[in-house]
Amino acid sequence: MDGPGAAPWSLEGSTGLVSGVAQASRETKPPNGDILFLLDSSGSVSYYEFSKVKEFIRDLLRPFTFGPHDVQTSIIHISTVPTIEFPFDRYPSSEAVQQAIRGTQQLMGDTNTGKALSFAKEKFFTDEAGSRPDVPKVLVWVTDGFSTDDISPPMQLLKDMGVTVFIVSTGRGNFLELSAAASQPPEKHLHFVDVDDLPIITKELRDAITATRLRAVDITSSSFRLMWPKLLSSGTGYYVLEYTPAEEPGRKLTQQVSGDRTSLLLNDLAPETTYKVVLIPESNTQYIPPQTTRVTTLQGIIWGAHIGVPRPTGLPAYYTEISPTRIVISESTPHSFRVSWSPTPDSVVSYQVLYGPLPGNSAKLLEVDGKHNSTVLENLTLNTTYLVTVAAIYKSGKERALSAKACTQGGE
């Protein structure tokens, strides 16, 4: 079964009735990430407004799962001096988070938002504050639209660190200033709403926060689709995608993905296997932290004599399409090296070799006859690391790819 649209089937065997290889699943793992709330606790906010905003934050977070491998959250008060209500790793359960927000007290004072943003940049997205280096970072700033100091420089520094910024303005505010402060595009990251109408945007904002992370959908026994927010473009960089069976770290697979992509279908996976997935944005302009997730494929069927029937047409590719499983780099010179792979089954029509320098966003494609198991890549740059991907194109139309890094020599 190649996907959720394939027709269901069933068979009777020694293991009982089995309906399909596995039903395609659209359920995803709970989101993970660090969510920081910048809460206006100054004297420009009334007690009633402060209470309504706390209620809004509690409702926004209620469905999330909290813990060191799930969502973590924290609050910084905007006041004369920025103040931490609690760090990211303080409360590992939804009940504890809800109780902590309920007990949060308004501080009053000045609306020094710029100071609070600088504090968040310097102190808060750090190990000491319980923040994690390999998860999405989200800042939600709830404001009445007024600040006594400049917010632009520290906000830009946070965005340069890879923090996604959402702004909820419960006052009039300066649309142009807030649009520039929020992540782009502003129509997805900036909300103007009366404090009594905050529940109207709760689900929309929650969905947008969830979409800032790497996640898997359409999970089957042999595949899943990865989706992630737009972090790059074809002109600003590319992604390196690594996925590894959690119990076999030595079997890490790597793919280079164009910067304009926001999704990728991974095929030919093993059933009932947990994969650790890392998406590494290689940007030409700024550092963007990697995103990670773990995905478990669904149950499959192992075909053999104990079932007593032949393998039906249309079963997932991991049963027959296994090449390439190994790449070897040899005969390296300053401007060339040989790439070899194995095995080379008869069912392969051709191999496509994609190669490009790291870092960089340019790649070349070389096609090799399916009967061959190696090729020499020439006209390369000396003393340069390349990412090489070998993709087997099968008679069935399916593909399987494996990547490796290779270096040219440093002297002429």
From TrEMBL:
<protein>
    <recommendedName>
        <fullName>von Willebrand factor A domain-containing protein 1</fullName>
    </recommendedName>
</protein>
<dbReference type="Pfam" id="PF00092">
    <property type="entry name" value="VWA"/>
</dbReference>
<keyword id="KW-0964">Secreted</keyword>
<dbReference type="InterPro" id="IPR002035">
    <property type="entry name" value="VWF_A"/>
</dbReference>
<keyword id="KW-0084">Basement membrane</keyword>
<dbReference type="Pfam" id="PF00041">
    <property type="entry name" value="fn3"/>
</dbReference>
<keyword id="KW-1015">Disulfide bond</keyword>
<dbReference type="InterPro" id="IPR013783">
    <property type="entry name" value="Ig-like_fold"/>
</dbReference>
<keyword id="KW-0272">Extracellular matrix</keyword>
<dbReference type="InterPro" id="IPR003961">
    <property type="entry name" value="FN3_dom"/>
</dbReference>
<comment type="subunit">
    <text>Homodimer or homomultimer; disulfide-linked. Interacts with HSPG2.</text>
</comment>
<keyword id="KW-0677">Repeat</keyword>
<feature type="domain" description="Fibronectin type-III">
    <location>
        <begin position="323"/>
        <end position="412"/>
    </location>
</feature>
<feature type="domain" description="VWFA">
    <location>
        <begin position="34"/>
        <end position="209"/>
    </location>
</feature>
<comment type="function">
    <text>Promotes matrix assembly. Involved in the organization of skeletal muscles and in the formation of neuromuscular junctions.</text>
</comment>
<dbReference type="InterPro" id="IPR036465">
    <property type="entry name" value="vWFA_dom_sf"/>
</dbReference>
<dbReference type="GO" id="GO:0005604">
    <property type="term" value="C:basement membrane"/>
</dbReference>
<dbReference type="InterPro" id="IPR050525">
    <property type="entry name" value="ECM_Assembly_Org"/>
</dbReference>
<keyword id="KW-0325">Glycoprotein</keyword>
<keyword id="KW-0597">Phosphoprotein</keyword>
<feature type="domain" description="Fibronectin type-III">
    <location>
        <begin position="210"/>
        <end position="300"/>
    </location>
</feature>
<keyword id="KW-0732">Signal</keyword>
<dbReference type="InterPro" id="IPR036116">
    <property type="entry name" value="FN3_sf"/>
</dbReference>
